């Protein structure tokens, strides 16, 4: 339906020619904006309903009542079974933060959820074999754990926006809510959060749409080919402004490899798109202060580049 509506508006109502770059950008913007906002609304609402059964104190006990390292491992593994894109993982990030779960643990989830999931595992297994799939999963989980541990050790809780800690749903564990009450609270939470982030969603997707429409198809291969020793950092830099989930980038990775791009460079590009995308950073700005976003981007950039060179060296 979203494909049909995007085509209808782009080609019928606006009268743009399918062969033009402007049409590619406009269609991308319309389709991804509708997709992301609908997905965000649904996921935020579902998460809010689930959270009404798990008050902050209970959630805090589940992930905080154990060693810090086990908390990071649990959060990273939880990310594998929650196949959300980077933008839609933000509501769960907010919920974890509000519940008092350590900041580093929440980042382990935020990194793992878009980067590593069962959809990516199945597709990678089918396209490249089980060794590549399992190596990618192990690498993604390791990146999520290590990055979360580093952020946790830096004690950057003061760099989270104040309003995140003021969001309240189900204040006490003893409160018994009816289904209508849960629905009302979840709907209010969803509405409030979408009001805060929708302009930033549009800005982020708009940037990605411009690049999607106007960057040449062989742009990545031209500048991040095997002859360039800086191919991995270049691939990461190109991937950041784009936006997709892991499943959506795997066909792109396959096409890039068919054109001669090494496996490590291709996977570094995939990681940058799914876990370090500019739209995600724009949305996270409503949750995190710029300094914390800079730390997150720096840590993720270094680890993704390392993973890219590692894959290129061993494959």
Low-confidence stretches are: 168-174
**Rg over C-alpha atoms, rounded to the nearest angstrom:** 20 Å
Question: Largest sheet at a glance?
Answer: none
Strand content: under 5%
Helix content: over 70%
The CA-CA distance between the termini, in Å, is: 41 Å
* Tally of helical runs: 16
Mean pLDDT: 78
| Bulk shape | globular
Order of helices and strands: HHHHHHHHHHHHHHHH
| Counted beta strands | 0
Q: In terms of structural class, how would the helical and strand content be classed?
A: mainly alpha
Number of domains: 1
Outline the structure in words.
The chain has 315 residues and is mainly alpha-helical. The chain has one domain (28-171, 178-314). Helix content is 75%, strand content 0%. It has helices at residues 2-13, 21-53, 56-64, 68-80, 90-98, 103-115, 118-128, 130-153, 162-166, 179-214, 219-223, 231-239, 246-258, 263-275, 278-284, 290-314. Helix 7 runs parallel beside helix 13 (246-258) and helix 10 packs across helix 15. The radius of gyration is 20 Å and the shape is globular. The chain starts with a helix and ends with a helix. Mean pLDDT is 78; it is low at 168-174.
Name the features:
mainly alpha; about 325 residues; about 0% strand; about 75% helix
Short characterization:
The chain is an all-alpha fold and 315 residues long. It contains 16 helices and no strands.
Provide the fold topology.
Layout: H1 2-13, H2 21-53, H3 56-64, H4 68-80, H5 90-98, H6 103-115, H7 118-128, H8 130-153, H9 162-166, H10 179-214, H11 219-223, H12 231-239, H13 246-258, H14 263-275, H15 278-284, H16 290-314
Helix pairs in contact: 1-2, 2-10, 4-6, 4-8, 5-6, 6-8, 6-14, 7-8, 7-13, 8-16, 10-15, 12-14, 13-14, 14-16
